[in-house]
Request: fold
Amino acid sequence: MSLLTTREVAERLGVTMKRVQAMIRDDRLPAEKMGRDYVVREADLKLVENRKPGRPPNAQTNGAAKAPAETTAKLNKAFREATEVDQEASKVTMAEKAVLRSAAPKQVSKKKASKK
Reply:
């Protein structure tokens, strides 16, 4: 019976040490704590060797599927067009405000008016 460290287990399984620690924490991989580290029996590696790689697929809620790429592209285009219209409108109003400011009579503050 040989004992392996989490680093050795990670190398043999082709995963990270964090993943090995997660398998231990989730009780998918039996291990014993020796000091501050975990050790795994070599025979126990057979329990996780045939696992499916990667993450499990997300569960779809309410039967909603992901939007096709065409729909996403159309939505992005519509958003960009609406944003450009808003930007053009704000430029016009800013220009109008500048004209109004230059045409309006300048106000004299109360402090300056009382000194005169």
In short: The mean pLDDT is 78.
